[in-house]
Amino acid sequence: MISYELIAKKRDGGRHDRQELEFLIDGFVSGRITDPQMAAWLMAAYLRGLDSRETAYLTEAMVASGKTVDLSGVDGEPVDKHSTGGVGDKATLVVVPLAAAAGVTVPKLSGRALGHTGGTLDKLESISGFRAGLSVAEFVGQLKSVGAAIAAQTADLVPADKKIYALRDQTATVASIPLIAASIISKKAAGGAKNILIDVKTGSGAFMPTLAESRELAAVLTEVGDGLGLKVRCLITDMSRPLGRAVGNALEVKEAIDCLTGGGPADLRELSVRLAALMVEMAGLVADPDGAVRLVTKCLDSGQGAQKFKEMIAAQGGDSRVVDSPDLLSVAPGRRVIAAESDGWLNIADCGRLGLASAVLAGGHLGEKGQIDRSAGLVMLAKLGDPVKTGDPLIELYYSDKDRLEAAGAAIAEAIGVVSARPEVRPLIRE
């Protein structure tokens, strides 16, 4: 086979068989197929699509590109949790320790920022000393000793996804249902968990802006997972506005800690409890949904979830004192407040632009080279549908580099506005 022919085949709407996709993935990982060639194929796949069989073959080839984690020695039924990505989505930082405190073993392989969405690893690495790069032995060992671990893919776990993930971010091929599904399920299959809960985001701040697209993604995820012997459940949640108030790495960690220690925004608490309770059910610890919610709520209110987060941070070399003293996190010194210019209600026309604004303030976004400023970001001082008066503060920007303010401000101007009639505020949990 020749890569040129495979690119042309998909460009012209053809369908790949198993051998062709195995050739493509193996060639890319080994270096025989170059980044420009894979970028061309990704764009062809983005535009022409992949059917369910192609998506399954692609996922299997990606899993086979590296090693897999053996969790047979871990107690119970491990449950992994994943989000398809949204603005201000720090729920993983609350859900994983909360579910672990309730008795669920949680093996979580996470990623970096993608497009306008933040990355869980980038957030955690705003904690001094935190080490995301665990070996497989360290990962499994932490699951046995602590009950949960959030780590990066090692070089030998789904190396195809790691390379493709970075290339998709640079080539505007992120929002493809088959590519998203293959990326998620390949990582989960390699991570060893047979039970996977996926938070599928929907709305302008998600990669799937419509409910119909989110339903389609959920269906593909469950179908592909089932084909690999995985039990996949999906919750479709709203991303027409940021989750919580904070958008930006260190700022989101502070908000997650606030939630774990009894405070935090109501929407973050609501979603975190619901997700952790579903994980308790999937692990077989509590069969009754209401009972699972009660157990998780007890772990949250008693501080057990916060204690488990401290254990996780310490096990991965981080300064666990941040849980008791969030001010230890480095937050950008510069501040600028954007205020309402008229009376009315706050509307968010494009939540994704708020994510982009935060990425601009942090630098190194959308595939550009450079060190990410994990201390930068923004905080929503008013939420979607809130009544506001002229001069009321709407958003506070946190920055270290003034040169980034103009571009961030332009994105925010496109994202929000004050309108004369209260906009629709959809339920947080859609389906």
Q: What does it look like?
A:
The chain has helices at about 5-10, 20-30, 35-50, 50-65, 90-100, 120-125, 135-145, 160-170, 175-190, 210-225, 250-260, 265-280, 290-300, 305-315, 350-360, 405-415; strands at about 80-85, 105-110, 150, 195-200, 230-240, 245, 335-340, 345-350, 375-380, 385-390, 395-400, 415-420. It has about 425 residues and is α/β, with parallel strands linked by helices. The protein folds into 3 domains: about 5-50, Transferase, Pyrimidine Nucleoside Phosphorylase, Chain C (Transferase, Pyrimidine Nucleoside Phosphorylase, Chain A, domain 3), CATH 1.20.970.10; about 80-325, Nucleoside phosphorylase/phosphoribosyltransferase catalytic domain (Pyrimidine Nucleoside Phosphorylase, Chain A, domain 2); about 330-420, Alpha-Beta Complex (Aldehyde Oxidoreductase, domain 3). The strands form 4 sheets. The chain has a 4-stranded antiparallel beta sheet, sandwiched between helices. α1 packs parallel to α3 (about 35-50) and α2 packs parallel to α4. The chain is globular. The model has no long low-confidence stretch (mean pLDDT about 95).
Strand content: 5-15%
Shape: globular
Domain count: 3
Radius of gyration (CA) equals 21 Å
Stretches where pLDDT is under 50 for at least 5 consecutive residues are none
So how many helices? 16
Mean pLDDT rating? 94
Q: Tell me about the biggest sheet?
A: 4 strands, antiparallel
Superfamily (CATH H level) name of the largest domain: Nucleoside phosphorylase/phosphoribosyltransferase catalytic domain
CATH class of the largest domain: Alpha Beta
Our measurement of the CA-to-CA distance between the termini, rounded to an integer number of angstroms, reads 44 Å
Helix share, percent: 40-55%
Which strand order spans the largest sheet, edge to edge or round the barrel? 6-9-11-7
In CATH, the architecture of the largest domain is 3-Layer(aba) Sandwich
Which series of helices and strands comes N to C?
Answer: HHHHEHEHHEHHEHEEHHHHEEHEEEHE
Q: Which structural category do the helix and sheet elements fall into? A: alpha/beta
